[in-house]
């Protein structure tokens, strides 16, 4: 099936999310859409899937124009979509999720669902592609990788000829990503055309047959997978960028931050952090890697005092942090960049200037005798926003008017404006564009070089590789192992699935993942460049 | 700043990662069992005078098979019941310490034993016999409006609309049932009219919830107050002026089911009722199957749990919610008709909070029709017990007896039910 977008335009108020998009998806081909967060990729796919109505342009299926009033129309036309946030009902079984919306019903029983037929549909597709999915499992009990397969089964069971995958690798370990790539190739052989939306250059080069790059709602070019990462990056960002952070080897000082035997049990009785111990020295970046939901976020919250520990101890400069209030912990010199800037890092309706003194608002010089000094707050905001290169119209505007990257800079500016004894940053670059990522990474490295111990929590291996001097991999609340910062992606990926270090190294040597190989290639290419 | 580079710490691998998840022992259940069993042992049996007897009456005079009233020694009977309950409590404690699941029949049997011990104690030395059949029949009749109410609640909430307006829907249904039945002098006409009033309240609720995205709890509460106001006004003006033609509904006739109604105890309790009770049986059975097994039910639950997922497979989210709310309102309207089915005249605020109890029954029953049935029966039984004991005279002041249903709720929710989970998208308007 051939699918064509001709001049698609979509506006949200004054914002033009898609501007006259022309794209053609041929059958039996993996077509990657590469673009930064907010470039308009997802908007375009939602238009294609009937979730948004375009303001202009038309969609053609096999050269005939079609109009999609809703997702049902798109599905009937043979378009299937695997959303970035899965469209699965957690409390339903796999079979129920797959048949939802086109349920097989038992004859003569007034709309009762034929569950045997539903299970058969799941098994049929699952066996054809070797998915190994149990039709009667509850979706909420399944790992994300399997949930994604359920989404794919769901699309295929509706005879999808075009399969749209929206940022499918964001939640996967490298090994799961590898399996997904294999599935995509298998589907391509079976004649399905695949639209692969991503902002990760490496993956695009590994699997795509054709690449279209989108920037600010426009298609700015097409490329082939032999194009170098550097070239693709500059096409995506619109200027030449520096991939990877240049940083000197760490100058390690004394151990000032210590976590020992830390255990956190949540109200349901799950050990979200299980007997965890590690140390961080001054002047080093200690990254905590792992698949989302293995206790990393909780660890960051416990350090700052947002979450109560069940037992154990956390010391900074020899003083106990556990059991102290958040204000006390911050006073002890801890800077904290929370995982979600919009809910935990900033108060959306407050001005930029106010957000910059959230933690200092009742200290001199900003407050005197219980009242704020607007002049000093504004002065502080001017200095900070300049130093951190926040692009803004006025410091009195609500912080919600800023882009994601600039909002994150505001958080960093606030947290780093005090002399720090420890910096804890959770997902510091989530959802940011390449330019902002570069900036944030540089600032974190600068903080390290100033002698601050830094703890980074990140689920992005690229980020972990870019920053870490040492990496701890967390799985189900425990540290699987602590490894040097340049440990190979495949080893980390296996550890993220709970495989102990020695076993991970052994099997990673026996079997390289596609992306892991790409990593090695990139590394040799770089060293060759250096020698010439 | 230190210029000495610290040696690279050796990578350390920890022991293989085992199952890190081990639930803490939930002590709340066992403690509750033990405390209740001990109370039963001490108060209901040991403190009862040894010579007292308790009399039970099983059949009524016009029953097909007559069973004579019988008496049991109060202290000995309560003692046996309490000891069995205590043994059950100890067993449940043992299971819990071993982190094994306590089977569902345990709380039911335990509750039954303690309840019987309570009845034996409360009637000890009373010259009247406790009429068991009347007690149970009353329990069923009193629970019918609650069952319809909680079915209405779950129909709405399963699709994502919070229905606090059950109270108003019951009241509206009762009002219209009375007026229409009186006007036509036909009780069945009232039964047909009641759902219309309920559906109307449901329609207003969903209009504000879906179209204007107003907080559903606020709309629900406002609707309850509105229906109270409207019915009070109409009652004190129109109804009181023409009580003969507008407020004297005929009784819904009793339709004993042949053969079944002749069975001792069970017959009169379950199969000797008016049409509305049989409608309730059908509604619970049909909804239990439809909600969990049918296409309609699957789609409605999908809309209540993850509306966006439902939308992406072509299910109309808001239309589903509108339909369910109106249907739910109609079902609650039937509950209103059940309230006045005995030929009662309408009075101000006739429902007296039954809608809120129905809401509690829905939550206690975990949003399932059969759960709603069981929870409503529990409340109905407590209510019936209060009435019967009031008539026979008991050592417990009637006000305390009136608290019984609510005490039962708190104990049930706190200790026995465990965690309940509402539909995930409940109360959240769906915007594309």
From TrEMBL, chain A:
The keyword Ligase does not apply. It is a peripheral membrane protein. Keywords: ATP-binding, Cell membrane, Membrane, Nucleotide-binding, Repeat, Translocase, Transport. It is found in: Cell membrane. One of its GO terms (cellular component) is plasma membrane. CDD domains: ABC_Carb_Monos_I, ABC_Carb_Monos_II. Residues 504-532 are annotated as: Disordered. SMART domains: AAA. One of its GO terms (molecular function) is ATP hydrolysis activity. The keyword Repeat applies. Residues 3-241, 257-501 form the ABC transporter domain. This is ABC transporter ATP-binding protein. It comes from Cellulomonas fimi.
From TrEMBL, chain B:
GO terms for cellular component: plasma membrane. The keyword Glycoprotein does not apply. Pfam families: BPD_transp_2 (PF02653). GO terms for molecular function: transmembrane transporter activity. It is found in: Cell membrane. It is a multi-pass membrane protein. This is ABC transporter permease. The chain crosses the membrane at residues 31-50, 70-92, 104-124, 130-154, 161-182, 188-210, 217-235, 275-292, 326-346, 400-418. The keyword Ubl conjugation does not apply. Keywords: Cell membrane, Membrane, Transmembrane, Transmembrane helix. It comes from Cellulomonas fimi.
């Amino acid at each position: 099936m051939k699918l064509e977008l001709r001049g698609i335009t979509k506006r949200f108020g004054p914002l033009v999310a898609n501007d006259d998009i022309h794209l053609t998806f041929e059958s039996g081909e993996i077509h990657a859409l590469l673009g930064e967060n907010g470039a308009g990729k997802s908007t375009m796919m939602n238009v294609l899937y009937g979730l948004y109505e375009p303001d202009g342009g038309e969609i053609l299926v096999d050269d005939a124009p079609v109009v999609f009033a809703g997702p049902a129309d798109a599905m009937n036309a043979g378009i299937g979509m695997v959303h970035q946030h899965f469209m699965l009902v957690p409390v339903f079984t796999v079979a129920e999720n797959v048949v939802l919306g086109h349920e097989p019903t038992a004859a003569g029983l007034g709309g009762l669902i034929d569950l045997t037929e539903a299970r058969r549909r799941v098994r049929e597709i699952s066996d054809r592609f070797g998915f190994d999915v149990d039709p009667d499992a509850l979706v909420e009990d399944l790992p994300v990788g399997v949930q994604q397969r359920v989404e794919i089964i769901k699309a295929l069971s509706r005879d999808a000829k075009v399969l749209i995958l929206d940022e499918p690798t964001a939640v996967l370990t490298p090994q799961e990503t590898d399996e997904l790539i294999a599935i995509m190739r298998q589907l391509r052989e079976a004649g399905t055309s695949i639209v692969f939306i991503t902002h990760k250059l490496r993956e695009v080069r590994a699997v795509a047959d054709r690449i279209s790059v989108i920037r600010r709602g426009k298609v700015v070019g097409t490329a082939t997978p032999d194009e170098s990462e550097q070239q693709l990056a500059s096409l995506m960002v619109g200027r030449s960028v520096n991939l990877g952070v240049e940083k000197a080897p760490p100058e390690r000082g004394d151990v000032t931050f210590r976590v020992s035997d830390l255990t956190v049990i949540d109200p349901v009785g799950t050990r979200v952090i299980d007997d965890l111990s590690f140390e961080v020295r001054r002047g080093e970046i200690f990254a905590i890697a792992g698949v989302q939901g293995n206790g990393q976020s909780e660890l960051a919250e416990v350090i700052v005092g947002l979450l109560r520990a069940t037992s154990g101890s956390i010391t900074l400069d020899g003083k106990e942090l556990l059991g102290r209030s958040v204000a006390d912990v911050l006073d002890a010199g801890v800077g904290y960049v929370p995982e979600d800037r919009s809910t935990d890092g900033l108060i959306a309706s407050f001005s930029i200037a106010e957000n910059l003194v959230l933690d200092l608002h009742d200290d001199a010089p900003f407050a005197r005798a219980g009242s704020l000094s607007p002049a000093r707050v504004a002065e502080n905001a001017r200095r900070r926003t300049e130093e951190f290169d926040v692009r803004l119209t006025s410091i009195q505007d609500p912080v919600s008017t800023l882009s994601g990257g600039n909002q994150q800079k505001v958080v960093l500016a606030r947290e780093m404006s005090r002399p720090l004894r420890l910096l804890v940053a959770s997902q510091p670059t989530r959802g940011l564009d390449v330019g902002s990522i570069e900036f944030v990474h540089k600032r974190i490295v600068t903080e390290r070089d100033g002698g601050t111990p830094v703890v980074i929590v990140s689920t992005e291996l690229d980020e972990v590789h870019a920053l870490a001097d040492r990496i701890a991999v967390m799985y189900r609340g425990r540290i699987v192992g602590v490894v040097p910062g340049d440990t190979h992606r495949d080893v980390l990926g296996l550890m993220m699935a709970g495989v102990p270090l020695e076993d991970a190294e052994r099997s990673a040597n026996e079997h390289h993942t596609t992306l892991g190989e790409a990593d090695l290639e990139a590394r040799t290419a770089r060293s060759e460049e250096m020698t010439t | 700043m230190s210029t000495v580079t610290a040696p690279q710490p050796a990578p350390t691998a920890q022991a293989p990662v085992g199952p890190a998840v081990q639930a803490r022992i939930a002590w709340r259940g066992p403690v509750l069992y033990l405390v209740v069993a001990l109370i039963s042992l001490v108060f209901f049996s040991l403190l009862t005078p040894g010579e007292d007897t308790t009399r039970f009456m099983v059949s009524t005079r016009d029953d097909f098979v007559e069973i004579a009233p019988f008496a049991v020694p109060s202290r000995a009977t309560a003692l046996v019941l309490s000891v069995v309950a205590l043994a059950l409590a100890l067993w449940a404690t043992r299971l819990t310490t071993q982190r094994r699941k306590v089977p569902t029949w345990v709380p039911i049997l335990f509750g039954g034993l303690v309840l019987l011990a309570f009845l034996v104690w409360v009637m000890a030395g009373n010259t009247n016999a406790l009429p068991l059949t009347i007690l149970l029949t009353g329990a069923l009749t009193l629970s019918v409006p609650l069952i319809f109410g909680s079915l209405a609640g779950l129909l709405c909430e399963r699709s994502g609309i919070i229905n606090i307006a059950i109270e108003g829907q019951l009241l509206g249904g009762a009002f219209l049932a009375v007026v229409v039945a009186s006007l036509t002098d036909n009780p069945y006409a009232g039964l047909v009219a009641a759902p219309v009033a309920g559906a109307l309240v449901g329609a207003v609720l969903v209009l504000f919830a879906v179209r204007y995205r107003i907080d559903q709890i606020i709309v629900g509460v406002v609707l309850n107050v509105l229906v109270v106001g409207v019915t009070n006004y109409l009652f004190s003006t129109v109804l009181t002026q023409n009580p003969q033609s507008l407020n004297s509904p005929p009784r819904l006739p009793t339709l004993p089911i042949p053969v079944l109604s002749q069975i001792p105890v069970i017959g009169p309790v379950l199969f000797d009722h008016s049409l509305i009770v049989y409608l309730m049986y059908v509604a619970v059975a049909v909804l239990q199957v439809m909600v969990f097994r049918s296409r309609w039910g699957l789609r409605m639950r999908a809309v209540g749990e993850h509306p966006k997922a439902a939308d992406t497979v072509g299910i109309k989210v808001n239309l589903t919610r509108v339909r369910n709310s109106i249907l739910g309102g109609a079902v609650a309207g039937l509950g209103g008709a059940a309230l006045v089915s005995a030929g009662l005249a309408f009075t101000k605020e006739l429902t007296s909070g039954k809608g809120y109890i129905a809401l509690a029954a829905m939550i206690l029953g975990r949003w399932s029709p059969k759960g709603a049935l069981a929870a409503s029966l529990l409340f109905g039984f407590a209510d019936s017990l209060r009435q019967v004991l009031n008539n026979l005279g008991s050592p417990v002041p009637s006000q305390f007896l009136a608290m019984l249903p609510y005490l039962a709720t708190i104990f049930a929710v706190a200790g026995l039910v465990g965690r309940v989970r509402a539909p995930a998208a409940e109360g959240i308007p769906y915007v594309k």
